[in-house]
Amino acid sequence: MKVTVYNEYLHEVEAESVRRVYPEGIHAALASAVREHVPGAQVRTATLREPEHGLTQEVVDSTDVLLWWGHKAHAEVSDDVAERVRRAVLDGMGLVVLHSGHLSKPFVRLMGTHGSLKWREADEKERLWNLQPGHPLLAGVPDHFELEQEEMYGERFDVPDPDELLMISWFQGGEVFRSLMTWRRGHGRVVYFRPGHETYPTYHHPVVRRIVANAAAYAAARVRRDDSTCPNPAALEPVPNPGKEHVLKP
Amino acid sequence: MKVTVYNEYLHEVEAESVRRVYPEGIHAALASAVREHVPGAQVRTATLREPEHGLTQEVVDSTDVLLWWGHKAHAEVSDDVAERVRRAVLDGMGLVVLHSGHLSKPFVRLMGTHGSLKWREADEKERLWNLQPGHPLLAGVPDHFELEQEEMYGERFDVPDPDELLMISWFQGGEVFRSLMTWRRGHGRVVYFRPGHETYPTYHHPVVRRIVANAAAYAAARVRRDDSTCPNPAALEPVPNPGKEHVLKP
Amino acid sequence: MKVTVYNEYLHEVEAESVRRVYPEGIHAALASAVREHVPGAQVRTATLREPEHGLTQEVVDSTDVLLWWGHKAHAEVSDDVAERVRRAVLDGMGLVVLHSGHLSKPFVRLMGTHGSLKWREADEKERLWNLQPGHPLLAGVPDHFELEQEEMYGERFDVPDPDELLMISWFQGGEVFRSLMTWRRGHGRVVYFRPGHETYPTYHHPVVRRIVANAAAYAAARVRRDDSTCPNPAALEPVPNPGKEHVLKP
Amino acid sequence: MKVTVYNEYLHEVEAESVRRVYPEGIHAALASAVREHVPGAQVRTATLREPEHGLTQEVVDSTDVLLWWGHKAHAEVSDDVAERVRRAVLDGMGLVVLHSGHLSKPFVRLMGTHGSLKWREADEKERLWNLQPGHPLLAGVPDHFELEQEEMYGERFDVPDPDELLMISWFQGGEVFRSLMTWRRGHGRVVYFRPGHETYPTYHHPVVRRIVANAAAYAAARVRRDDSTCPNPAALEPVPNPGKEHVLKP
Fold first, then answer.
1. Distance CA A132, CA A46 (A)
2. Are A129 and C175 a contacting pair at CB < 8 A?
3. Is residue A210 part of a domain?
4. Residues of C in contact with B163 (CB under 8 A)
5. Contact at CB, A176 and C170, closer than 8 angstroms
6. Does residue B203 sit within a domain?
7. Which residues pair with D21 in a beta bridge?
8. Cα torsion for B71, B77, B81, B85, to the nearest 10°?
9. Domain count along chain C
10. Is A222 within 8 Å of D136 when comparing Cβ atoms?
11. Do the Cβ atoms of A235 and B152 come within 8 Å?
12. Which residue numbers in chain C have pLDDT < 70?
């Protein structure tokens, strides 16, 4: 399983408070979570400031699942790379979108919606409830667990109804949120997992790490196939006018 | 109920064979179907060659449901108008996408997928099967009906799993197709209805006309509200750090 | 629209504390909510101790939507009446299941699952969040509202994934719950709405009353048709052996 | 992976024409398909005329996935065994329902619907279209394949909307059918796969065998846990009346 972890990697560089929590960057924490729980996973990382954000066509082509963490610089991700990621998902690559990635270009383009939500930074408690203990994405995850301090995300989360709703969050301040969801898009699978604000040690939490790794394994590509064009096959049964001339579709 | 019918309106102008079937344009046939079955509907039309394709901000803002027929000139629809339509749907406007509109910019942007499918022009028979006779979109529609000649569209149709699968087509040449589906996107509803190739009198067929009108009524806006941004509300319950400073989201 | 409200009607008879809240019974409160918000609705009531629980074949046959409140005496509902209700839903009747009706025979038989959940009586606060402000079932309902005291229901709620998830509850004690959901079953529609413990004045709350009435209107039958048997039609296209003998299905 | 194959095993005993196709019974053909494609699978069989139909509590408790083929004697399956199977699915066991099992007691009880459909025996061609080539249940399955002769099943198939629609059938006689679907129920997964009339060699077809085996592997239990009762937990956060007395739920 070939995993690529994309991280914007700006907060950690710019703010000492974040660097203390993630000294090697959020991408390093995510990569280690996958390595810890998925034996044999080959994990690379990519960051915004690298050429093509580290997500060249070659990297994307050889990625089974891409993890995405971004926050303040979504607009700096080039449209070309965003479209490359979207097409790779439709071809079968998995995509695990984390926390503030709900506004990232690849996620928004794959969902079609705004991805908007309520938010608040108040060091409040989050408790995540497990709706499907038998789902492979929740293997090893208890019926609920708590994060002592997190940013709040509240409904209405503007996304299409998911194929699978796996966890719902309770927040101390009074809100709720659908925190773990999956959608199929083309041949690929998209997972969204809510926790992970940069100022909290969320990606060091053992249950969070397990879910991140499970999500990567669940979304990893099973096929990789470009079905972007519209074929014009001959009929399989007799039809009135098999040789009819027509205008070609794109 | 304020209805706007968009039609590319090129085939009818360029080809005598199409003009014979739709002398006033496909938009006129669609508009008359809505007027016939939805008493009190106010129906306007818009075409590609008009300024802003007839879909100015004012027109879109005052539209409850937009019907969309396009085929050979999807690329000529401006990105601005496509995005205007997408945002209007997320705000609550309904969108009924017809036949070759599966590759139109608004539909592809709302779905996130390619919208690709198999196709063939061979004057073959299509039979549509009704999966939900109790659904308002299928009011007055029999358990199945036939179109003697239509273009074939075959699976795999590359769209997200629909919220509702309402009809499946059987084709003489051996293929099947999910022909009537709905998706919620934001506050709006999208309907896709397959039949309607420009060289056949499909939009004069009484059952097709009923479905087109039902689809318009079903998708028409119930709210109209811009939720594109992320609010930062105060907590509803006590939280540890209610006045915490933070970086604003877009 | 013909509405029947079923209520077990035992708590109100047996406990003064409940009678104080619902002096004419919970069914009377529910019936008045529907009458208040659905002009022209014809509303009847039915209770457990009546012959056939007030739900004779004649009553069920002439009901567009049935509301169901039961709690401590689910087992006393006869299997015949439960099956009658199930079949009526499959034929197109709407069913709105309230609060502790999650364990009622008709609901469990239509869902196929246990309907189990966590619960607690501790006079705690419930806050319900509106996920689809544009849905007809949530017309007139704010983005969230509170019930000062309610029984807690917590996830995992053992039901099939709903067709529509419309509200999620936050509870003071730390749990969350999918509080408003809909499922299609056969030609009918089932709605589950969580609030309504007998010791609290929940069904006097204006927003709750609006949702109860909206649910009744949304679920009301559009068709009524018995499709319980398997027809054996002649082929619509040529087949190799049209007159083949066979064993009849039930 | 522990697999149990249930077969009614009456047609093969009673009719020479069926025995010629399945000399050791349909269960033997299904068991060999699983063994062929799932290395290490432990496969047992069970038949109607055995005590408890071969599905004792011990057998069911030690089954990860149960395959079910039945046709003319659904009514002879005891309610106790049907309920045992239903509860095992809710506890996490997989269930793969084949062909005429659409009217079997366990399937109908888990779905809540009639399971009715159209049918015809006319030796006609069936072509199955693959809607999700990337799904594990369709690993190794081409984009479409044909069965030269099969019984026809046509829509409307009265089942709840599936979680996943994986294949649609085209029939020579003019009908269509959703032929491969999955539903989650409780902790378990149910798969329905259409083909397999007793008079045709369908379960000897290599692609059908692959799908049967894939379905078994996909549905096999990941957890096994009885969540049939409603726990009454203490609050996780402060509540007004934590020690309140109440009536116990069942």
1. 32
2. yes
3. yes
4. 163-164
5. yes
6. yes
7. none
8. 10
9. 1
10. yes
11. yes
12. 246-250
Q: Chain A contacts of B97, Cβ < 8 Å?
A: none
For B169-222, the pLDDT digits (tens) are 999 999 999 999 999 999 999 999 999 999 999 999 999 999 999 999 999 988
Q: Is B51 exposed, middle or buried (0-12, 13-18, 19+ CB in 10 A)?
A: exposed
Closest-CA residue to A109 (of A154, A151, A63, A78) = A78
Residue of A nearest to B156 (CA): A227
Residue A224 lies in a domain: no
Reading the block at residue B230, the tokens are 């992320």
Among D188, D191, D120, D127, smallest CA distance to D159 is for: D191
Find tokens 């069913």 and name the residue: C95
A108 closest CA partner among A166, A193, A192, A187: A192
Cα D211 to chain centroid distance, Å, stands at 12
Amino acid letter, residue B49: R
A189 - beta bridge partners? Answer: A184
| One-letter amino acid for residue B90 of the chain | L
B248 located within any domain: no
pTM (2 d.p.) = 0.97
User: Using one digit for the tens of pLDDT, what is the confidence trace for A182-229?
Assistant: 999 999 999 999 999 999 999 999 999 999 999 999 999 889 999 999
Task: Quote the domain boundaries for residue B53.
Answer: 2-112+180-219
CATH classification at residue A107: 3.40.50.880
Whether cis (ω within 30° of 0) applies to the bond prior to A210 is no
Helices (H), B115-232: 206-219
| Amino acid at position B201, single letter | P
- Burial class, C58, CB count within 10 angstroms (exposed 0-12 / middle 13-18 / buried 19+): exposed
Q: In this prediction, does ipTM exceed 0.85?
A: yes
Q: How far is A139 from chain D (nearest CA, A)?
A: 8
